[in-house]
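Risk register update: the risk of archive-format incompatibility is retired. Evidence:
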Amino acid sequence: MVEINHHNILSLAKMRDHAYKGGGTDRIEAQHGRGKLTARERIDLLLDEGSFEEIDILKVGRGDLGSTSYPGDGVITGHGKINGREVFAFSQDFTVMGGSLGEAHSQKICKVMDLARRVGSPIIGLNDSGGARIQEGVDALAAYGEIFHRNVHASGVIPQISCMMGPCAGGAVYSPSITDFVFMVERTSYMFVTGPNVVKTVIHKDITAEELGGAGVHSEKSGVAHFVYPNDILCLRAVRQLINYLPSNNKQKAPFLDLNDPPERTDPTLDYLVPPNPNQSYDMNVLIYSILDGAEFLEVHSHFARNIICGFGRLGGQTIGLVANQPAVLAGVLDNDASFKAARFVRFCDAFNIPLICLVDVPGFMPGPEQEHGGIIRHGAKLLYAFTEASVPRITVIVRKAYGGAYLVMNSKHIHCDINYAWPTAEIAVLGPRGASEIIYRKEIDQAADPEAVLNAKMEQYRKHYVNPFVAAKRGYIDDVIFPSDTRHRLIRTLQFLESKGTTRPDRKHGNIPL
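Archived output:
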């Protein structure tokens, strides 16, 4: 009996050693040669030192059609901690069968996804896979379907984060795209439904994997990638940073972190941020970094639709989601991409109890046939729907322009924002002074000896009687006109009293957002 137990112990040690070596020394060196870390190295960097507990290290595939079985079946799964908080993770091992996904591989991922949802902890996927395991046929396709099913049912329940650290093609791209945030690594990761070879065959166009679905494409053009970093190390550090802003699940609030930044701190330079010339731009980031605790801000989608800014920061130690127009890019106008980007971010924050702060300087929606034909009505409605549906505390500060439908969409009082502030520089109207004056006083301007002088006089009259924030404040549409330097203090106090905000929801399965 003793000999049998001793033999089993030796066998266990041998199997574990085999699993730790992945695809072997040569393939590990090849992985490093491509500028990529191994699956285990990535897990070690992602999680707190010594916290990882592996699950299913000995699980193997059925070995159908003569394929070789490897302990772990090409994916490392388990749980560990990030800054002391429990998370679940899986890391695909490209050195083992190209990280291809088969039945056992999928079962391992599904097991940790189920556990993550059951205990209420985030799930982080480190993707580096050649796709479905061809040798397993339809079983491999079924395996992907099981993962997709779990992605959907975990959505809005626990944070789901995908790190693209290698190739991802075909149906495999749909799992990351369902998750909340997608990270990509420059030059080593790419995503596409149909690869360069298929593109060449079908439409006779030569294109590289990088040009078709690289990190640059998805961070700047498609909006699939929320974050992009130059290497695996910086990418994984950023994931740890993001987790620090998020709650573990939809029943909790985000962790409180006191950065010792006084809530009553003021910034007199903000009184001079908005230029006297309404046509002159400025950088909204100046305001953002001024008001947030420790000037710390994690921007989401920083390279995509840069005319709107979305990201996470803290006010008085509390995590907030911030949405702000960026007048330095396209004058801060709302277009298709900006509307989609902000709507998705707002819905994430609402799902995970993160209060929303909206900084407004928006001249309207982008005009033109390209935007209209691209569905700006539908995309703008997404943002309107997202803000209106959100039940978390919602605060708006109108910094300068707030015109027309864009004013309403950007978390206005009329779609039941909790508290709306305005700076004295705010301009709230159906149209800007010039456009409105040209319509209202068209006859007087056309008949004048000096039309431009009359137009300028009418514009000034329009500003005085219609545009300034005091008109809206008198109507109760603005709760207070505040000094710019006091913005941080007012936001923190408002968040404090809104902390116990309660809401009632309509009795329905779910609404039908204009996707």
